[in-house]
Amino acid sequence: MTAAVSNVGEARVVPGRECGSCTLCCKVYNVVELGKAAGKWCSHCKPGRGCTIHDNLPRECAAFNCLWKTMPALSVQWKPDQSKMVLTLHPETNNIQVVVDPGQPSAWTRQPYHGQLRALSKNNMPKGRLVVVFVNDLGRLILPDQDVQLGVLTREQVVSVTQEAGPSGAVYEIKIFNRRTTADGQTLEIASASRHPARSAA
Ligand code: SF4
Ligand code: SF4
After folding, report:
1. How many domains does the chain have?
2. Is CB count within 10 Å lower at the N or C end of the chain?
3. CA nearest neighbour of 67 among 46, 47, 44, 96
4. What is the largest CA-CA distance in the chain?
């Protein structure tokens, strides 16, 4: 699965943010220990009710809390069983990953969600944190003023955005890198680059 699960279990759960009837993370992510594929319900999940192997959870599941549980700024509308999206922080890039229920692939385009994703982008881009929406393996970068299709993104790929002044105004330069592990560590090799004029003062 492209959208990696962050170990956000280390983050503190906001008091009162219980999973309750939500089970969406048991659908959208893969679980390596179980050989479970992303986008399909786990065989141990009773959708809307919970996990049937609670006393014997895979480590990945036991450590997991989505961002709705740990980020106070996300309102109750963002509870995944309502929004049909699960948010996490990518473990390496710290980007905000929005994984959409493949049964409701346009969920991210609805309001108030789309406007709030743009606002998240605007607030987080200056800190170097991007907002990337995944529908299955297809990534889409949410910028403060536009959405950019990235195509299929793999877990080994890294997205970067810089903003430059162009002759007709500001331009985003989006680069996708392949991460390669070598004897000396990790290297990044550019896979693609594209330029997108800013549409408003972002
Ligand atoms: S997506 Fe979040 S709220 Fe829903 S079951 Fe998973 S951790 Fe709980
Ligand atoms: S083992 Fe339980 S918690 Fe983990 S994905 Fe399956 S149903 Fe969800």
Report:
1. 1
2. C
3. 96
4. 61
> By alpha-carbon position, which residue is closest to atom 8 of ligand 1?
19
130 within some domain: yes
Which ligand neighbours the alpha carbon of 67 most closely? 1
Whether 48 maps to a domain, the answer reads: yes
Going by alpha carbons, the residue nearest to atom 2 of ligand 1 is 66
The answer to whether the peptide bond before residue 144 is cis (omega within 30 degrees of 0) is: no
Task: Find the domain containing 175 and state its range.
Answer: 8-197
Residue 110 resides in a domain:
yes
- With bands split at pLDDT 50, 70 and 90, how would you rate the model's confidence at 185? confident
- For residue range 125-151, list pLDDT tens digits in order: 999 999 999 999 999 999 999 999 999
Which of 110, 106, 101, 153 has the alpha carbon at shortest distance from 130?
A: 153
